Amino acid sequence: MKRLLVSELKDHIGEEVRVRGVVDTVRDQGKIIFLIVRDKSGKVQTLVWGGEDKTLLEKVKRITSESVVDITGKLKEAKQVEQGFEIEINEIKVDSLAQSPLPIVIEEEHHDNTTALDRRLDYRWIDLRSKKNSLMMSVATLMTAKLREYCLVNDLIEIQGPRIISAASEGGANVFEVKYFDKKAYLAQSPQFHKQMGIAAGLERVFNVGPVFRAEKSFTTRHLTEYTSFDVEIGYIDSYEDICEFEEGMLRYMLEAVKEKYGEEIKKIFDIEIKIPKDSFPRITVKDAKEKLAKAGIKSKDEGDFSPEEERKISEIVEKETGSEFLFMIDYPHKQRAFYHMKNPNNPELALGFDLFWKGIEITTGAQREHRLENIIENAKERDITEESLKDYFDYFRYGCPPHGGFAIGTERLLMKMLGYGSILETTYLPNTPNRLGKLINKN
Ligand code: AMO
């Protein structure tokens, strides 16, 4: 008999059906045992009575929560249960008996976690069984699919830049070195150089989705050592404004799709309303932002960058003023940005780039790039980067390269903000951080 998903059962009342899934709850009432069985589409009550033949009842008595079962039985109407039906078990096969007790508590809807995050992550495959986390994984899938779809609709070419590279793009300090036969190589911190290569290659508009690596000893709620970067690079732009507009469209497109498909469930399970941004996002200069923060009593340690507290506060202020959850921070000092950002010709102290903040956190960096050979070499020199060390990269600008710009979104951060999680570790399938490689690596 073919397996039916729980969501398909409603059309089969009165029939013999087969369901396969996991035992969510066992309720043993002696003469009758209820097993609530869960699959990816929902939960159904199944039961067995102790009639003449006790073999089935005895077999079911030994089944533990989270065991994987294969059940056939009669689907009967049952007004007293939520779904309006239940399955009277005729046959049950235990495909996999779960050991008891489980090492962690699987989070129930609307309940706070009772197991510490580190332990939950050590048993991530069990942690992901919760309704909340399984919805998170579905939303993540749609989110990336829609960002990607937006790129396809807008005629971008997908590239896959190499992940093992010979030169670091985002500065030397937080790069992982790897042994490459008898040479030294690096894990890509970003596909930055190779997406720009796509522009020099005449592909005009490219995107790249994949893992990037940061050797950063940051124990925060927003840093991973490996994350998925959604990168876009667009040629023949007039200004970084073209890039901002592209990103606005892309995020709106994705959020509309997520809201349409999962909006109600997200509201129910995460208590979050997905808001679709209507207008273009506010642009605010670093200088103005710092002034607003000072007025709000927030002291700044760095005139050209924002602490997490400042990011939170400025988002709050701008949302209050404009109603927008998003804001583009512009006019950063060039010396504090990547060397490949173009300088503002009207004020070379400033970079032609931006960060995008969403609900209190930076989710994107972007910029118009310096595509003129002399200028890019000059910018690099100001950071003590020699022409020789990035020769391959500089060569992209040697044989004709259109003006261009782009951005990168950290997808785990985007998802974290979308669903209101407190830590990026929760929106990463299996997070790597300085002290975990899948599992905690220094427990002492
Ligand atoms: P940047 O280094 O700002 O820019 O990274 C872009 C975005 O990636 C995310 N991000 C991270 N997510 C998790 N863990 C980390 N350690 C981490 N670091 C960054 C953030 C951030 O906004 N090449 C440029 C982008 C460009 O200009 O196109 C770059 O990588 O969401």
Descriptive overview:
- By secondary structure, this protein is an alpha+beta fold.
- The protein has helices at 55-61, 117-122, 124-127, 131-153, 192-200, 240-270, 286-295, 308-322, 373-382, 391-395, 411-419; strands at residues 16-28, 32-39, 42-49, 68-77, 85-96, 157-158, 164-165, 177-180, 183-187, 205-213, 226-235, 283-285, 326-330, 343-344, 347-351, 353-358, 361-368, 404-410, 432-433, 436-437, 439-440.
- It has eleven helices and 21 strands.
- An eight-stranded mixed sheet has the order 6-10-11-18-17-16-13-12, sandwiched between helices. A five-stranded mixed β-barrel has the order 1-2-3-5-4. A three-stranded antiparallel sheet has the order 7-9-8, with no helix packed on it.
- The mean pLDDT is 95.
- Aspartyl-adenosine-5'-monophosphate binds next to strand 11, strand 17, strand 18 and helix 11.
CATH fold-type name of the largest domain: BirA Bifunctional Protein, domain 2
CATH superfamily of the largest domain: Bira Bifunctional Protein, Domain 2
Quote the distance from N terminus to C terminus.
52 Å
Number of H/I helices: 11
CATH class of the largest domain: Alpha Beta
Strand order of the largest sheet: 6-10-11-18-17-16-13-12
Helix content: 25-40%
Report the average pLDDT across residues. 95
Number of strands: 21
Q: How many structural domains does the protein architecture include?
A: 2
Largest beta-sheet characterization: 8 strands, mixed
Based on secondary structure, the structural category is alpha+beta
Task: Please give a handful of descriptors for the protein shown.
single chain, 444 residues, alpha+beta, OB fold (Dihydrolipoamide Acetyltransferase, E2P), BirA Bifunctional Protein, domain 2, eight-stranded mixed beta sheet, 11 helices, 21 strands, 28% strand, elongated, binds aspartyl-adenosine-5'-monophosphate
